[in-house]
Specification:
Length: 367
């Protein structure tokens, strides 16, 4: 999906009526039947289906089923014991500490803020599946921590990273700020409420799933390019596909809201998105300074900053906004990731799962 090619979220349709004041209440007279996807209420009727695209996303997600038990970490343990440098160990420990908290925050936002406000049963089906996938990611990262950090005290510190590692706490503060911005809303009764909701979705789709995790993926695939931690990379391939689908779902909800209520997407909204994503880049760069502070051969802070700006520009484009950084991807190992193990996985378990993916993952397409 590339929204920028089809729509500019901040160009209203020619037939759009004059916007009302921000605090004007929206029409809820048909709330139970939901004229718009953000109307208050819980529309329950799947036929006729108003948004079949979300149902197809749900079906595709089911095809992409995987389990943590399918991932072989045995080579990783050998690498950790014999091959990695102290600087690489610091990188790995910081990385898995962030993983341990990131998807739990996403899950909480999904349950507390997203599910109740997206008024389409087929979209809520997808959100239910996404919640399962977030729990699966948490299990994956739990397994990483238990295997990668044998010291009990150090492991406890990693699980509590959001409280005791400043670079991770900074990212958490950024996310909680947007998460809490709509936590008090039981219904989206005004246009201002709906704008806040959309900004929350953009924060979690574009910033945490689409930037923070993509930064983390770069460290994982950098290590794999050196022949290290293939188990981590194999699991990350699955997480990458899930996170990309979550991001695309959120962008589709946002695009649907734009089509139905284009007056929500004014220049003030655009400015808020720009500031949000720029702040997210700064947060992730602060994490990079921590991750790379001991000097990891082959990965520089300058390149990491450029990579984060490149990813941010991709998010701006997907949201119908002009890129602001103009950076190119400095990491050759991120251009195309061979995921042959995904095909092998499905060959081993053909009786259990449908073939959801095969071949390669291209990081420069819908990145």
């Amino acid at each position: 999906m590339a929204l920028a090619e089809d729509h500019n979220l901040f160009e209203s349709d020619a037939t759009t009526s004059v916007p009302l004041a921000d605090e004007a209440p929206v029409d809820t007279s048909y709330a139970g039947h939901a004229k718009h996807i953000l109307d208050p209420g819980f529309h329950l009727t799947l036929r006729p289906m108003r948004y079949p695209v979300f149902y197809e996303m749900y079906r595709d997600a089911i095809k992409n089923t995987w389990t943590v038990e399918e991932i072989d970490f045995s080579d990783d343990l050998i690498d950790l014991d014999r091959k990695i440098t102290p600087a690489e160990r610091h990188l790995i420990n910081r990385l898995v500490a962030f993983f341990a908290t990131g998807d739990s925050i996403v899950s909480n936002n999904l349950v507390l803020n997203l599910y109740q406000h997206i008024n389409a049963p087929e979209a809520r089906m997808y959100l239910s599946r996404q919640l399962y996938e977030e729990a699966l990611h948490v299990q994956f990262y739990l397994t990483l921590l238990d295997n990668y950090i044998p010291d009990v005290d150090e492991r406890e510190q990693a699980f509590a990273a959001i409280d005791n590692i400043p670079s991770i706490a900074q990212k958490g503060d950024f996310l909680f700020k947007w998460m809490n911005s709509i936590g008090h809303l039981d219904q989206l009764r005004t246009r201002d409420h709906r704008r806040k909701f959309i900004l929350n979705m953009i924060c979690f789709a574009a910033c945490i799933e689409g930037l923070f995790f993509y930064g983390a993926f770069a460290y994982v695939y950098f290590l794999r390019s050196k022949g290290l931690l293939n188990g981590l990379a194999a699991g990350t391939n699955w997480v990458f596909r899930d996170e990309s689908a979550h991001m695309n779902f959120a962008f589709e909800v946002i695009e649907t809201a734009r089509v139905e209520e284009p007056e929500l997407f004014d220049e003030t909204m655009a400015d808020s998105i720009r500031l949000m994503i720029e702040e997210a880049v700064d947060c992730e760069y602060a994490f990079a300074e921590d991750v790379l502070k001991e000097g990891v051969a082959g990965m520089s802070l300058r390149d990491m900053r450029q990579y984060l700006e490149f990813v941010a520009d991709q998010r701006f484009s997907q949201l119908g906004l002009q890129p602001i950084f103009g950076s190119k991807n400095p990491f050759d190992f991120m251009e195309l990731q061979d995921v042959q193990e995904l095909a092998n996985f499905f060959e081993r378990t053909v009786s259990a799962y449908q073939v959801g993916v095969s071949g390669e993952v291209a990081f420069d397409e819908d990145f």
